[in-house]
Please model this.
Amino acid sequence: MEALVERLEQAVVRLEAVAVKLQHCPGGVANGDIISNMINGGESQIMEAFDLLLSGSVSEYVKTSTSIGGEVAKHAEMVNNAMQIQRTFLKMAMTHQEPSKTELADLLRPLSEQIHEVQSFREKNRGSSLFNHLSAVSESIPALGWVAVCQKPGPYVKEMNDAAMFYTNRVLKDYKDTDGRHVEWVRSYLSIWTELQTYIKDHHTTGLVWSKTGPVAPSSLFNASSDGPCPPPPPPPPGPPPVFLDNSAAPDDTAAQHSALFAQLNQGEAITKGLKHVSDEQKTHKNPNLRSQGERTHQDSPAKRPSASVRAPAKKHSPVLELEGKKWRVEYQDQSRDLLIEETELRQVVYVFSCNSSTLQIKGKVNSIIVDSCKKLGLVFDSAVGIVEIINSRDVQLQVMGKVPTISINKTEGCHVYLSKDSLDCEIVSAKSSEMNILVPEGEDDYREFPVPEQFKTVWDGSSLVTEPTKIAG
Model:
């Protein structure tokens, strides 16, 4: 199929070339119009296929998100906006020639900013009870960056889809027996990326197809749109650079420095042409007097003197322990050994952020608990009906006194989990973490410790991949 698509693309390029020649030849205008109409018909099919995706899976995803409401509905509006921006970009690419890298970065900036907005929304709502929904979208929305991926963008979209499934599986586990809306939400959302892969395979197998005969793409994406009045250009992004663009053109970027270094290394023998010959009288290892002079020169050089630090002092945040709506916020606690949350309710969530060398006890049953960017934290809680998640933390000790269905450990170094007898059926999911130990009760007051594997071995058994923990003998 890929070979057939490549042959068709080559045929389109030849037809475009013939159309140009006929349009510049006497009596060839009519034939040129016929071939141009054939090409424009292909462009129309490409846009119709993308519009079918928008009116199908994307529309259904927005509808199911609206029925769930809250943060999920707001997130869906952002995703829909990103898809509309991509449509504008694709329409422009169908009628314009590919621009330079710098101009392409400017054209992709509105899409990149929208992707960044989608991801920032998740970060601002970490305490939400729908956090898994937001995470699924946030982890996979960079798939829209396929337009900047050369050669085979389809597999790139699949990787983003796989990243979403880590969180959609959690959604299914939480709601498959209680609320069918969330099950339908998972199906409709994953269908977007599945159908986008099909669209790319059918129309952009080896990368985004640009026009060969149209004008060079303009500097602004929205100025190229013919779908209506042009909105004003977006302001410069306040946050990080675009999430999928190559910023190697920046003068201070590491990639630019590496390029300059490789250019020097690639000179081969010519790299020594700029070196000056040094006689024996000038070599310090043969003249101790020169070496001592050099040491004094370096000591007296003002360039080597330590300069006063001009860094602004780190902003110190006030500690927080408060109930905000249905979310308990425990933030910026330091050396606090007696933190206590009581009088809890089932619908409440607890969000613990940037706490160091502290201990927190949560009484009663809560919906979920998130520990984010903490160090040397002790957490004791009674029960949680949802997930307890440890992310971006170090040296965390967690003890459950009652029941918890799932504990997630992500990007964490050093985590000890003490389970109760009622929580032995808990599922523990870990990723990008190390030094994890699970302690299970043994007897009345004793615990037995089990390390969580950090290294795995994967083999092909003839039909599928088989992954299992592995141990390295010391």
Summary: The first helix runs from residue 2 to 23. Residues 191 and 250 are 37 Å apart (CA to CA).
